[in-house]
Design goal:
The protein is of the alpha/beta class and about 300 residues long. It has a domain of about 210 residues: Rossmann fold (3-Layer(aba) Sandwich), CATH 3.40.50. Helix content is about 40%, strand content about 15%. It is built from ten helices and twelve strands. Strand 4, helix 5 and strand 5 form a beta-alpha-beta unit. Helix 8 crosses helix 10. The longest helix is centred in the N-terminal third of the chain and has 21 residues. It is globular, with a radius of gyration of 19 Å. The relative contact order is 0.14. Bound molecules: guanosine-5'-diphosphate-beta-L-fucopyranose. The site of guanosine-5'-diphosphate-beta-L-fucopyranose (GFB) has 23 residues, from helix 3, helix 6 and strand 7.
């Protein structure tokens, strides 16, 4: 049987690299990737030419400008513009060049700042957004809606998954631009190595976050791409969250740092909580496998084995 091509856009990132690891085990698919220098996803014509020549049957759009609370809040223009451009280019070209299935990745931060918890998919666009990531959220909401309208207006099988906060191999460990979990791994590791008495963390430690290992996300994406038939977005999370303080204690214990935690109140907390309701996903029949403790252990191992990423 001839293999079908799947284009994994953003294959060097946290999500894309997990998708590549997964699809390498699936014989029915031929993985297609392009580095940024081979194909600039911001360039509409180049993207259209790529679809004409490669003719992928499926696309997972994991290419995006992403970052933690500091990067998001200080580069709202770039997060809004670049993400809109990438997703418009890829989704429109996929529709115009007979891609059979496309999965777009949204994010839990696109839901309203103060919505009831756990967050159901239907809460999208019911109230104002969290200001620290408004640019990113607006771009992602547009992508989710574009897929939904392609599905409704043109019968395309373009779907959207909304992951919670993600972590795992190939994450960004840069302290200015990273998300909290990789930042904590690095901070605690460096404090241990330097025998520092304390580690400085941002905000109050009281916000709650839900963490999903990226290998679990990749499994969920593959399953949804194959079998999810609705045009409604679907949350992909673990169904439980922890405070940032609890996360910090877990990372501290995983790394083996003995010292104090200090909280820098001059840094933002961001949204107080964004725990997603995963009942739609459970009904679909998918459940995560990797606990936060296990995922953290694996992530720290990966970090130690890849010092160049730090
Ligand atoms: O992961 P994070 O940067 O982003 O921060 P968000 C989560 C929480 O961890 C915030 C606290 O309350 C931070 O103040 N925190 C404590 C730290 N110490 C640190 C640290 O050293 N580094 C970082 N980065 N945080 C992002 C959105 O929001 O979530 C994006 O901005 C995206 O749009 C992503 O959706 C999933 O969870 O607040």
């Amino acid at each position: 049987m001839a293999k079908k091509k799947i284009f994994i856009a953003g294959h060097r990132g946290l999500v894309g690299s997990a998708l590549v690891r997964l699809y390498e085990t699936r014989a029915e698919w031929e993985i297609v990737t392009r580095t940024r220098s081979e194909l600039d996803l911001l360039d509409r014509e180049a993207v259209r030419e790529f679809f004409v020549s490669e003719k992928p049957a499926a696309v997972i759009l994991a290419a995006a400008k992403v970052g933690g609370i500091h990067a998001n809040s200080t580069q709202q223009v770039e997060f809004l513009l670049q993400n809109m451009r990438i997703q418009n280019n890829v989704i429109e070209a996929a529709a115009d060049h007979a891609v059979e299935r496309l999965l777009f990745l949204g994010s839990s931060c696109i839901y309203p700042k103060n919505c009831p918890q756990p967050i159901k998919e239907e809460y999208l666009l019911t109230a104002p957004l969290e200001p620290t990531n408004e640019g990113y959220a607006l771009a992602k909401i547009t992508g989710v809606k574009l897929c939904q309208h392609y599905s409704r207006q043109y019968g395309k099988r373009f779907i959207s998954a909304m992951p919670s906060n993600l972590y795992g191999p190939n994450d960004n460990f840069d302290l200015q631009t990273s998300h909290v979990l990789p930042a904590l791994v690095r901070k605690f590791h460096e404090a241990k190595v330097n025998a520092s008495p304390s580690v400085s963390l941002w905000g109050s430690g009281s916000p709650r976050r839900e963490f999903l290992h990226v290998d679990d996300l990749a499994e969920a994406c593959a399953s949804l791409l194959d079998n999810y038939e609705s045009d409604e977005p679907i949350n992909v999370g673990v169904g439980e969250d922890v405070t940032i303080r609890e996360l910090a204690e877990l990372v501290r214990d995983t790394v083996g740092f003995v010292g104090e935690l200090e909280w820098d109140a001059s840094k933002p907390d961001g949204t107080p909580r964004k725990l997603m309701d995963t009942s739609r996903l459970a009904e679909f029949g998918w459940h995560p496998k990797i606990s936060l403790q296990e995922g953290l252990r694996r992530t720290y191992e990966w970090y130690l084995a890849n010092p160049s990423r730090a």
